[in-house]
Design goal:
By secondary structure, this protein is mainly alpha-helical. It has helices at 3-37, 46-54, 123-148, 157-177, 185-202, 214-231, 234-241, 250-300, 303-343; strands at residues 59-63, 66-69, 71-76, 80-85, 90-91, 94-95, 101-104, 107-110, 117-118. It contains 9 helices and 9 strands.
């Protein structure tokens, strides 16, 4: 037997053993988690579990009983700028007022109903920093690899990321933007790996649903819209305000343009809106589905359903690994399409 075939077979066996071990462990984890969630006759509430995971919070709960209280940074006209730990809002797991502030479902207001501008380091913000730190660490290492292995075959972490970078350059940027693709590459690479890493972080136990937060996806979509708008050439704006060109006489344009102009102008804003909703909805839906499947074991209090649910949850987690990179690819691809339309030369 050839060495390559032996290696492939051994890797295949290792993967199979890993999957078998994971499938055996998952039901036990599910049942163990269920026993910790129920106290006496208290009924299990799946909506509370799901909402706790997909929503933002001033507390990072790594595990049940192990929490990290994050810094609260608030500003109001009445009290000015205040910085303190979110632990001040909790007294034996009960939410209490602190220093004139009230926190209700992680929304901070002043006692008496005053408005507060909240710029706290929440769980999602913390994972934004973690995601950014990972990008810096990984691609600093990749850059060092390029300098060290200049003129030679890539090695180590460089060899893993180089094909992905080349794919984004050749198959996404060049194909959709054209000769002017170079100035858009930093953004496309950053947004692809930022979304991909963020999606993967969201699948870790105790992690934040960062890319399933609509504020994060809105910001990414707005960045794409700003770059598209300010990169638009004369041809791009002529297509919006004179979509028919010379294909119709003036009389026909007068009749049709009152209909076409609103459609074209609305289209400028629906493109980033679709980017925002697509990423937000797909990531959030995946998390809700996995948690709903796991919750079935606690709802029915059945070992059989727990085992079957764990199997389905494991399969869904593996599918989410593919969705993580797919959504990063789709966002990057559509962004490059919009950039290509903005800089397209007149034919």
């Amino acid at each position: 037997m050839k060495i390559g075939a032996i290696l492939k077979q051994s890797n295949f066996l290792k993967i199979n053993k890993f999957l078998a071990l994971l499938l055996l462990i998952m039901p036990g984890l599910v049942l163990a988690g269920g026993s910790s969630k129920k106290d006496g006759d208290e009924q299990f509430d799946p909506s509370e579990l799901i909402n706790h995971h997909i929503s933002d919070s001033h507390v990072w709960e790594i595990y049940h009983g192990l929490t990290v209280h994050l810094p609260v940074i608030v500003y109001s006209e009445e009290k000015g700028l205040d910085i303190f730990s979110s632990a001040n809002f909790y007294d034996h797991e009960e939410v209490v007022p602190y220093n004139g502030y009230i926190m209700d479902h992680d929304h901070i207001t002043l006692e008496g109903g005053g408005h507060v501008f909240d710029i706290s380091i929440t769980k999602n913000v913390l994972f934004l920093f973690i995601d950014a730190a990972l990008l810096i660490l990984v691609f600093t290492a990749v850059a060092r690899g390029y300098k060290k292995n200049e003129g030679r075959a890539p090695r180590g972490i460089q060899s893993f990321f180089e094909p992905i970078i080349v794919f984004i350059r050749d198959e996404i940027a060049k194909d959709n933007i054209g000769p002017k693709y170079g100035k858009f590459m930093p953004f496309l690479l950053t947004v692809f790996f930022f979304i991909w890493f963020g999606n993967l972080l969201g699948l870790l136990p105790g992690a934040a649903n960062m890319t399933g937060n609509i504020s994060v996806t809105l910001t990414l979509a707005v960045l794409t819209w700003v770059i598209t708008t300010f990169s638009g050439r004369k041809t791009y704006w002529l297509h919006i305000f004179d979509p028919l060109g010379k294909s119709l006489p003036t009389v026909g344009k007068i009749l049709l343009y009152p209909i076409l102009w609103p459609v074209e102008i609305i289209g400028i804003f629906t493109k980033p809106f679709s980017l925002m909703i697509r990423l937000f909805a797909n990531i959030t839906a995946g998390h809700i589905l996995i948690l709903s499947i796991i919750s079935l074991a606690f709802i029915f209090e059945s070992l059989t359903i727990g085992v079957v649910g764990a199997l389905f949850a494991t399969v869904m987690n593996m599918l989410e690994l593919f969705v993580a990179v797919l959504q990063a690819y789709v966002f990057t691809l559509l962004s490059s399409l919009y950039f290509g339309q903005a800089v397209e030369e007149h034919h």
